[in-house]
Amino acid sequence: MGSKGETLPPPGSNQTYVKVSALNGGWVTLPERLFITNADPEALKTVPSMCFLIQRPRPGGGPPERIVFDLGIKRDMSQYAAGMQDHLSKRQPITNLPDTKASLEEGGLDPAKDVDYVILSHTHWDHIGMPADYPNSKFVLGSGTLHTVKHGAPHYPPEMFEKDPLPLDRSTEFPPGPDSPGKDLACATSQQTSHQWKPISTLKHAIDFFGDGSVYIIDAPGHLQGHVNLLARLGPEKWVYLGGDCCHDSRIITGEKEIAMYPDAHGEMRSVHSNLPVARTTIAMIQDFVKTNGDNVEWIIAHDKGWADNNQERFFPGKL
Hints:
- It comes from Saxophila tyrrhenica.
- Its cofactor is Zn(2+).
- By secondary structure, the chain is α/β, with parallel strands linked by helices.
- The chain has a single domain (19-314), classed as Metallo-beta-lactamase, Chain A.
- Helix content is 16%, strand content 23%.
- The protein has seven helices and 17 strands.
- It has helices at 85-89, 100-106, 125-128, 145-151, 250-254, 276-293, 305-310; strands spanning 19-23, 27-31, 44-48, 51-56, 65-69, 117-119, 138-141, 171-173, 191-192, 198-200, 203-208, 215-219, 228-235, 238-242, 262-263, 269-270, 297-300.
- The strands form four sheets. It has a seven-stranded mixed sheet. Strands 10-11-12-13-14-17 form a six-stranded mixed sheet.
């Protein structure tokens, strides 16, 4: 498995399928020139920070096991670190309600009781949300996430993270991806999951989260240490790929645009990704995966305004 051109595996006997619903995670305004090439230098675009609910039938019956993938923007902006406030001022207007908690409650779920796992694609401010809303959920993170929260990352120093934003007693990290940079940053104080990375289709490094071929975590490095994507099996020939912040504009995946470069405060050229060459490799991987699997895979990135505008009926309690 994993060779170029190989499609996704067919369903097994008694295959488990999951339901996936989009969740509101707030809206943020982005200057297009920082994200895509050949942009209008004055153009601003207010985009969603989408999150997702994944529901898997529980073996033996009972309520389904539930994953919330990403938590969006904090509804209490004062909880962001002091070092983050200047950045937030440059992303206005920001809408932080409805958030994931309100979205779940609107569909009849209590985030304090009904969510088994919170998996974060990464811990940038518009994805980390309000972890305290999920006091009984297990948090599962990409390798090195807890190190990054404590020590910072390129373009994202530690003062931009609020202190202890994640519940350490309920947080584990996936093992390092074999090709990921910063493999030595796996947090020594956190327990690592026992999952193993294996290929699926053209994706080199995937974790079968439940062990039944229904939900896969995909190593997707480059944007921030520990960045992961999620691939879910919705039906016999129906999948969805949740790309997080692999890029911030769908036209990068389609090849119409490329990642922008721009000067930082010191006149050095940078992008929105902490490791641009690796981020480009991740995008190429996703492009190859989408091309190989055609109409069997729907792909969604977190800030895709077009998808959100055209798919309101697929937000919870609706489904993909």
